[in-house]
């Protein structure tokens, strides 16, 4: 199937959000100094943000090379990527 399914997108985003919330909760409830915990959270969220941006960029490249969608959809996706960071 060449078209990206919206339902699958929602499931994947829900899974990623759940994993993120679980990981942050685990860090917050673990014993340790507040300063160390805040640093861990900042480091992890930064890493996840970079990974998410890279994954989204790869997806856009794949979509562009594998299908011939209209330019409006591609520009919209690029604008969303730019607003993410």
Shape: elongated
Helix and strand content put the structural class at mainly alpha
Give the topology string: H per helix, E per strand: HHH
Q: Give the low-pLDDT segments.
A: none
Descriptive report:
- With 85 residues, this protein is an all-alpha fold.
- The chain has one domain (6-84).
- The protein has 3 helices and no strands.
- It has helices spanning 6-29, 34-66, 71-84.
- Helix 2 packs antiparallel against helix 3.
- The longest helix is centred in the middle third of the chain and has 33 residues, at 34-66.
- It is elongated.
List its traits.
about 80 residues, mainly alpha, 3 helices, about 85% helix, elongated
Topology record:
Elements: H1 6-29, H2 34-66, H3 71-84
Helix pairs in contact: 2-3
Short structural summary:
With 85 residues, this protein is mainly alpha-helical. The chain contains three helices and no strands.
């Amino acid at each position: 199937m060449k078209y990206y399914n919206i339902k699958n997108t929602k499931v994947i985003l829900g899974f990623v959000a759940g994993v993120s919330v679980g990981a942050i909760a685990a860090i917050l409830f673990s014993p340790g100094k507040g300063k160390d915990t805040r640093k861990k959270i900042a480091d992890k969220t930064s890493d996840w943000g970079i990974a998410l941006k890279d994954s989204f960029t790869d997806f856009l490249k794949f979509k562009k090379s594998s299908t011939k969608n209209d330019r409006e959809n591609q520009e919209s996706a690029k604008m969303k990527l730019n607003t993410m960071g």
